[in-house]
Amino acid sequence: MTRIELLKKNFQRVCGLPWDRNVAGAQRVWLAVYDKEDERKLRLRLGLFEEAAQQSGHPWHAFDLTNAFADWMTAPANASYAASYFESPDLLDDAVLADFKQCVVARMLAVLDGLPKAEDAVLCVTGVAALFGFLRISELLPLVEGRVRGRLLVFFPGVYEQDNYRLLDARDGWNYHAVPITASESEARR
Description:
alpha/beta, seven-stranded mixed beta sheet
């Protein structure tokens, strides 16, 4: 069984369990952790995860962050940022990136608030690797978790070890109370 198939199997097991409606926002977040080398394979096989959610009786909705920075940068209101960024990327300071973060948060909240049958739905978030260097996932999730009524499934290319998540195996990890879903064979046997 491939790593993607194991991840899907473990996702299906977690998704098929009864959902506690009285858990905190962070516990409504699932982080599907996979090897960064598997990004393309995973994208090609997202349909397997959608099928698994639907077989478990949960509507599936997708939200892709891959182009979030480019979309924000090319918005007419940000034209001055774009010109200066391409001349000197190191001048993109914290204030400007705070605006980007608020834009991403607003987009995610709009999607979460607009989900039909939100209490039973899975919102799948892909493309978080594209945020690397601009926005930390550890800063983003706490800003949206309170509005998750069903489950937020974040596909996370990185590592989960000893209750810590590291995006793209890079920075120091962060501890987060999300439900980790990995491609572990021992997890698949539970």
